[in-house]
C-alpha cells in the first residue's frame, strides 16, 4: 500500500506541476488568475465527488450478490479499480493536451508551452537564492496546513464539537470544497480585474484566520465560518499560485512550482501527523488554536503590491 501511495503522490504532484506550468505558458497576461481558478474549481469538484462517492460505491459493491461473501479488502480493491477510471480519463486529457501543444508548435513554429530555453545550473542557483520564491513557499505551506488537514479531520470535528449527525457533518465538511468549486473561477476573474494578487493573498489568509477563531472560541453555527473558509481558500489559491509567474522566468517555472509543491507537501505531511496527535492528546480547542497561529506567518511576511 505504501508503494502505491508513493507512486500516486509522485504522479499526482508531477501532474500538478505540469498543469501550473502549462497554464502560465499559455495564459500569462490573459486572465491567468481565472485559469488557475478554473483548475482549482475542477480539482475541488474531484475532491468533493471523492469525499462523497467512495463510501456509497464501496457499500453497493459489498451488498452486491457477486461480493456477498468477499472479505472487505477485496471490496475495497474493486472500489479502487472503479476509481482508477478517473485516472484513465486524466490520461486521455493529457494526451489531448499534448496533441494541442504539438499542433500549436507546428502552426506557430515555436516551442508552444515553453520559451525553448532550458534551465541552467546558474539559473537554478539564482532561483534557489530567490527570497521571493521562499517567501511564497512559506505563505503556501503556512496557509495550506490550516485548510487541508482541517478538512481531513473535519467530519469528526463537526460531530464532536457541534454534536452533528454523521450525514450533516459530512455536508458541513464538504462545504469548503463545494464552495471553492463553485466560486474559484469568478474569484479568479475578479483578481484578474483588480490585478492585486498580494492584497488577495492577505485577504484570504485573514479571512481564514477569522474562521478558525470562530471555530475555536465560539459555539455559533459552524456553517458560517465553513462557508467563509470556502471563499477565503478560493481567494488565496487563485491569487497565490499565479504569483510565481510574475518573478520567475518561464524556463524556470517548472522547477519553481516543483519546489513550491515539495515545500507544501512536506509541511502537509508533518502537520497532518501533528493534527492527529494534537486532537488525540489535547483536544480540538488546542488544534484549532494551532491553526489560528499558523496563518499569522504568511500575514506577517507579506506587504501590499
Ligand atoms: N493547479 C491549480 C492551482 C493549485 C491549487 C492547489 N494545489 C495544490 O495544493 C497541489 N499540491 C495539488 C494540485 O495542484 O492539485 C490547491 O489548492 O489544490
UniProtKB/TrEMBL annotation:
It is a multi-pass membrane protein. It is found in: Lysosome membrane. It catalyses: L-lysyl-L-alpha-amino acid(out) = L-lysyl-L-alpha-amino acid(in); L-alanyl-L-lysine(out) = L-alanyl-L-lysine(in); L-lysyl-L-lysine(out) = L-lysyl-L-lysine(in); L-arginyl-L-alpha-amino acid(out) = L-arginyl-L-alpha-amino acid(in). One of its GO terms (cellular component) is lysosomal membrane. The keyword Ligase does not apply. GO terms for molecular function: transmembrane transporter activity. Its main location: membrane. PANTHER family: MAJOR FACILITATOR SUPERFAMILY DOMAIN-CONTAINING PROTEIN 1. Homodimer. Interacts with lysosomal protein GLMP (via lumenal domain); the interaction starts while both proteins are still in the endoplasmic reticulum and is required for stabilization of MFSD1 in lysosomes but has no direct effect on its targeting to lysosomes or transporter activity. This is Lysosomal dipeptide transporter MFSD1.
Amino acid at each position: 500500500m505504501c508503494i502505491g501511495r508513493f507512486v500516486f503522490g509522485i504522479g499526482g504532484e508531477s501532474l500538478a506541476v505540469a498543469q501550473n506550468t502549462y497554464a502560465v505558458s499559455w495564459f500569462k497576461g490573459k486572465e491567468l488568475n481565472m485559469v488557475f481558478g478554473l483548475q482549482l474549481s475542477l480539482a475541488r469538484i474531484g475532491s468533493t465527488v471523492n469525499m462523497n462517492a467512495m463510501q456509497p460505491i464501496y457499500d453497493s459493491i459489498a451488498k452486491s450478490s457477486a461480493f456477498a461473501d468477499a472479505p472487505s479488502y477485496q471490496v475495497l480493491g474493486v472500489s479502487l479499480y472503479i476509481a482508477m477510471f478517473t485516472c484513465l480519463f486524466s490520461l486521455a486529457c493529457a494526451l489531448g493536451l499534448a496533441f494541442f501543444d504539438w499542433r500549436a508548435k507546428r502552426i506557430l513554429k515555436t516551442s508552444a508551452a515553453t520559451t525553448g530555453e532550458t534551465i541552467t545550473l546558474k539559473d537554478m542557483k539564482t532561483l534557489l537564492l530567490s527570497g521571493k520564491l521562499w517567501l511564497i513557499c512559506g505563505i503556501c505551506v503556512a496557509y495550506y496546513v490550516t485548510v487541508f488537514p482541517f478538512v481531513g479531520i473535519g467530519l469528526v470535528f463537526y460531530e464532536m464539537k457541534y454534536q452533528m449527525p454523521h450525514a450533516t457533518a459530512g455536508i458541513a465538511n464538504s462545504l469548503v470544497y463545494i464552495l471553492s468549486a463553485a466560486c474559484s473561477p469568478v474569484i479568479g476573474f475578479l483578481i484578474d480585474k483588480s490585478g492585486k494578487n498580494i492584497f488577495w493573498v492577505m485577504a484570504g489568509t485573514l479571512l481564514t484566520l477569522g474562521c478558525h477563531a470562530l471555530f475555536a472560541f465560539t459555539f455559533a453555527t459552524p456553517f458560517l465560518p465553513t462557508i467563509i473558509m470556502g471563499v477565503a481558500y478560493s481567494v488565496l489559491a487563485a491569487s497565490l499560485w499565479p504569483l510565481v509567474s510574475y518573478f520567475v522566468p518561464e524556463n524556470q517555472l517548472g522547477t519553481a512550482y516543483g519546489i513550491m509543491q515539495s515545500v507544501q507537501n512536506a509541511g502537509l505531511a508533518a502537520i497532518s501527523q501533528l493534527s492527529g496527535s494534537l486532537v488525540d492528546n489535547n483536544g480540538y480547542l488546542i488544534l484549532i488554536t494551532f491553526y489560528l497561529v499558523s496563518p499569522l506567518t504568511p500575514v506577517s511576511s507579506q506587504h501590499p503590491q
